[in-house]
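Entry:
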Amino acid sequence: MSTGVVTAARVTHESGTVDQLAAASPDSQEAAVTELLTVPDIEEAYVLSTCNRVEAYVVGADHTVGRAALEEFFAAIDDEAVVTTGHDESLRHLLRVAAGLESVILGEDQIIGQVRTAYEDARAAGGIGSMLEAAVTKAIHVGERARTETAINEGVVSLGSAATRRAAAELPLEGATALVVGAGEMGRLAARNLAASGIDELVVANRTVAHADHLVGDLEVEIDTRVVPLEALETVVTGAEVVVTATGSDEPVLGPRHFDAESDRDTAERGTEQVIVDLGQPRDVAPAAGTLPTVQVFDLDDLESVTAETREQRADAAREVEAMIDREYDLLTEQYKRARADEAIAAMYESAERIKDREVETALSHLEGEVTEGQREVVESMADALVNQLLAPPTKSLREAAAEDDWSTIHTALQLFNPEFDGDDGPLAPPSVITANADPGIGATDDD
């Protein structure tokens, strides 16, 4: 078990704007972990990047090391948008994220898969060691329990369904034509919800047409569908009353040119407006498009009314999940304590084993004549019995010391029995002890 501590920093839908989230997003989670591991004294790293959050977790000898690495990682982001946390807060926050308590849509299901994918990416980059292995797998376990044992994910469960609700609040969806731009997970959810809302036709535009074909083939409702390449957007945008965008493009895919003046006049004569819900991060829709008289553009920040309603509906379930997290967090910290006590115990037994082996050989060399196998077994058995009896009381004491947060005792044991242990290399005490008076670091602090 690592003797380091976890430090984390994040930019989320709560702390930053859509543009700040876009600026914080790495090219890939695996590449971000690889970058963090190049920082001296960073032992482990994990990065979770979604449309609503970019979070980085590192394990280092102390929080000074972790904060320095994360400050560089988020160097392009204004400090007020970055939330930095110490060990205890970081672990608890990770459990809350996986359980859906930190999502735009409280309890949404997509985040648990995203946490798991980020774990696989971090493993591929060599970022998962003993400490983050325990933390992230515990978070995944909590997320699964929250969704199977509570009602936290009943009702509106995704941004795709929230986008449909937002559009329905602006114009009738029954009989309308809807356009979904992007055939990824978010686009799939948006398409599924729009198809179930009573629309007449669904058009899906995507860079890879085969992916769009697959999406419409999986719809559970039979409606008219069309698939077009992304290059053909201009030919289909003006015919859709509702547009939901969810691409991974670095640049906007829709702008004022897609809504030409002639089309605007035609739309105005029909007495309808086009509603666009931009789920992209970075933005899929250029802000200038929202200035057109017949176009309404909503982004992630504008889904607050839907998410607030969902939070109210799931308040009781959220309290159940909070209690679940409290218990699972306690189990995680106990797991860390046991592992660190076991490290001291292992060092103690390894030291005793070296002494035992040396003294057994010395004793056997003093015996007259050739030593039989039976004699060797007798001497070794006696030595093993002595070691086990002598170390049984300190073994019990070390386990009790860990349970009672008596880390000075374990620190002393490691100094006595592990010749390679240097107390100056880094803290052995559990992070809850170390971070009690820690400097909050860059950006805002988490008051969870």
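The domain at 157-306 is CATH 3.40.50.720 (Rossmann fold).
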